[in-house]
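RECORD TYPE: inverse folding
INPUT: structure tokens
STRUCTURE:
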């Protein structure tokens, strides 16, 4: 139930922001028992463009280092080893 209320509140806030920024224009055209509204929405275009950007690169190289080792023995020495 909380998630539904949060979703409704988010939709209302987005609608208010779109009207405030002018993306959506809402005009009342008739004042009567059932008012009419004219809704105009700006055209939104989505696409891609080619641009040169700096991209960090990650590389690896092999390097010889001393690493810790652990040996475990049970104390029994086998003959011939």
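DESIGNED SEQUENCE:
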């Amino acid at each position: 139930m909380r998630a539904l209320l949060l979703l409704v509140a988010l939709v209302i806030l987005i609608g208010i922001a779109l009207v405030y920024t002018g993306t959506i224009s809402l005009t009342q055209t008739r004042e009567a028992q059932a008012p009419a509204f004219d809704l105009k929405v700006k055209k939104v275009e989505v696409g891609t463009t080619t641009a040169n950007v700096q991209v960090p690169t990650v590389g690896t190289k092999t390097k010889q280092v001393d690493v810790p080792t652990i040996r475990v023995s049970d104390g029994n020495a086998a003959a011939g080893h």
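NOTES: The radius of gyration is 34 Å.
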